[in-house]
Amino acid sequence: MSRQGDARLPGPEEQQLRATVIEAADALYYANGFRAVGMDALRQEAGLSLKLLYKLFPSKESIVLAVLDYRHQMWAGEVAAAVDQETTARGRLLAIYDYLAGWFRSDSFRGCVFINAFGELATESPAVAAKATHHKGEFRRYMNQLATDAGFPAELGDQLMLLAEGAQTTAAITGDPSMALKARQAAEVLVGAQEAANRAGRSPIPDSGPVSAA
What we know:
The protein is mainly alpha-helical. It contains 9 helices and no strands. Helix 1 (11-32) crosses helix 2 (39-46) and helix 7 packs across helix 8 (154-174). The chain has 2 domains: 1-58, Orthogonal Bundle (Arc Repressor Mutant, subunit A); 59-214, Tetracycline Repressor, domain 2 (Orthogonal Bundle). The protein has helices at 11-32, 39-46, 50-56, 60-84, 89-104, 113-121, 126-149, 154-174, 179-200.
């Protein structure tokens, strides 16, 4: 529904309009790329006047940053929900690949939005580069925490994260959703080796220490 006018918006209404813009921008940017979508196309998708759109967001960059925040929260929540469904340490470590398998099979899958944004915009927008770096750093810390919670070195979390990241990129480029399963199979080997090492009282992976803040 189109909304016109330039009067100062009340808080809840402004928040709802911002959410409408972010969701519209997320869909357009993810499907078409960040550079390809102009403000006029976004205004039409969101059903707002261009003047109101700029009142809500002073620049395209501010919309991109809001979309990346939205995607970060979505990713973190969905991954945590998938992990929390598992009751064993092994299951929790491997849950990310089952989550990726479902995502890769969706018709809308276009790869990792943070990699896409970094590739398109990082050289001209340090703020976008920082958002992507933060997102990947948070995922790394999350996987490290899952590993240490299971009694394994944090380095195992790094290895599992790299498998998940590689699967996302490869699935996006090749269009092959089986990359999630192949990454899971490789992860099972790593987890199995660490389980065997723990039983034998040794570690096959040198622990490189805590992950520094991004």
